[in-house]
Amino acid sequence: MEFSKATVSDLLSRIPESDRTHLLNLGKVQAFAKAEFIFSAGESSHHVFLLLSGRIKIYQSSTIGKEAILWFCFAGELFGLAEATRGGGRMVSAQTCDACEVLCIRQEIFTAFLETHPRTSLVIVQVLACRLRVLGDVVINLISDDVRTRILKMVLQLGSRCGVPSTHGLCLDIAFTHQELADMIGTTRQTVTTTLGQLEREGLLAIDNHKIHITGSDLLAQIWRTQSLSQA
Predict the structure, then answer these.
(1) Is 116 exposed, middle or buried (0-12, 13-18, 19+ CB in 10 A)?
(2) Is the Cβ–Cβ distance between 11 and 76 less than 8 Å?
(3) Which of 79, 96, 188, 206 is most exposed by smallest CB count within 10 Å?
């Protein structure tokens, strides 16, 4: 089975080439339509997943049915990892945001692979640690920050992950709905719309063709510093 280089993210580029080739041939590729569930909270867990194309949201639902988006997975990222290490049912749901291709790997096959590939196992530990740190930041932000600050922090984080240069400054190269943004920072869609409008009038952001462009020089400088530190 062959995969284009475009499917290998910075995450997987840290895995030795021989490990990466082995990993990409462990499972079966499955296509999912937009808004389709890869798995839902409460289901039995049997697979680990590698997203080859598209975007997937990982979220939990509250007792009143409100979604809290924990993170987005982009092409080249692994997900469904937690249950692979601890077993048990799914604690979160994974749903496609657009049409996706996903490599599905049986848990026992993935676990056996990690046992014989220590360098890749270390990368997986780093991935889980990074996600735990991000979720910790989310909790602190919800406690201590107002909506404006939470939106700016989220935009900076997304800019570091999926920002590309544009005539406006830096474009988040994926269109997010206002509802998705609201579900990421614990507020309402109406509040996100109002706050984005305020930030646009202040010259910090620009909205063009449903995509967010970071235009404020201070915000851009923060992203460049973050990227420089991550590459050091």
Answers:
(1) exposed
(2) yes
(3) 188
